[in-house]
Known about the structure:
Mean pLDDT: 92
CATH topology of the largest domain: Rossmann fold
Strand order of the largest sheet: 3-2-4-5
CATH architecture of the largest domain: 3-Layer(aba) Sandwich
Bound molecules: phosphoric acid mono(formamide)ester
Strand content: 15-25%
Low-confidence stretches: none
CATH superfamily of the largest domain: Aspartate/ornithine carbamoyltransferase
Helix content: 25-40%
Largest sheet: 4 strands, parallel
Oligomer: single chain
Shape: globular
Number of helices: 9
Distance between the termini: 34 Å
CATH class of the largest domain: Alpha Beta
Amino acid sequence: xxxxxxxxxxxxxxxxxxxxxxxxxxxxxxxxxxxxxxxxxxxxxxxxxxxxxxxxxxxxxxxxxxxxxxxxxxxxxxxxxxxxxxxxxxxxxxxxxxxxxxxxxxxxxxxxxxxxxxxxxxxxxxxxxxxxxxxxxxxxxxxxxxxxxxxxxxxxxxxxxxxxxxxxxxxxxxxxxxxxxxxxxxxxxxxxxxxxxxxxxxxxxxxxxxxxxxxxxxxxxxxxxxxxxxxxxxxxxxxxxxxxxxxxxxxxxxxxxxxxxxxxxxxxxxxxxxxxxxxxxxxxxxxxxxxxxxxxxxxxxx
Length: 302
Ligand code: CP
């Protein structure tokens, strides 16, 4: 059975093949799969992009989705995640997409006989976000080797930062970090840390992160203005970026904090491209995990 709990569930060739397939979906490949798969999307934490792009990917693949709202379910009566998941398996779901606030929640689900796609676990991993980030970088530079990616902001609380850093280094990119020193991870070496002024001048990819206020015990400790001035991408700092460099952010964006409002849709920004790529990547992941067999019909052939 195939799961996607972390990117460690994929071999490097499988990961490369998913990116190629997602890139085909981004082009003119319209897949026709022959299947009767029904999946359920379980979101125990709020989500706009991940939830909606999984739903869009499922619609485009012809997958039926079972409506499941945590707030109207027996989770509210105390039913465990495992019993909820086993129930959905028992009634015929062929896979589950789950976002949950607990890091490594999927370890509770080892008794399941259907696959789990992790849509984000606490401060752990967010593998489909990483795949869509990789696809966006690949479409831009057609390589990962020797690219300098600087991940900026709330590293310690970010599942995106952890997953991305690990896979980008494996693929040959140089990864550095910038942001408040108290939000850095213990694993970050001194020579990987850059001030924001150094980061903007050195990065090929400037990957900004949202401040995860929901994971801070006593607030972030910075006013929006102070954070933007010291650690954010201001309009003046953007002017010092290399001509070809791009800006990424997993979103939701705190406009005027991680980056200036005017930069969210600037020529360097790939933020909305990342969201579009989320659908393509999630289609490739669903087809892989559910082992869907089918044909790709190309628009120009029809
Ligand atoms: N990037 C991301 O995971 O966004 P959502 O929380 O809206 O799904």
